[in-house]
Amino acid sequence: MRRPSRRLVVSWILAAALLVSALPASADEYDPRRAGHPLRIIAYVLHPVGVAFDYLLFRPAHWLGHQEPLKTIFGHRGERYGDH
What are the counts of helices (DSSP H) followed by strands (DSSP E) for the chain? Predict the structure, then answer.
């Protein structure tokens, strides 16, 4: 039995991705009691700041701490216990 060519596999993956992206998106129902809450309004403002911190500071710091020799210095053991 022949294996499918790489081009065929890539075209199937691309077709599946286009099909999934063409499906209608569903949003949460708008609830004016929750959306107008003062803490929700603050969260709307602070969420992009938190995402920026995540991508610009925390993820690079985690990657850096995962590299040697910092991995040994800080005792980073990986995602699972006992994973060295």
Answer: 5, 0
Question: What pTM was estimated for this model as a whole?
Answer: 0.48
* E strand or H helix at 63: helix 59-65
> What are 39-75's pLDDT values in tens digits?
988 999 999 999 999 999 999 988 888 888 888 888 8
Mean pLDDT score of the chain, rounded to an integer? 82
Q: Which residues contact 60 (CB under 8 A, 6 or more apart)?
A: none
For the record, the structure tokens of 30 come out as 């708008």
Tell me the two tokens of residue 21: 């992206």
| Rounded distance between C-alpha atoms, residue 57 and residue 73, angstroms | 20
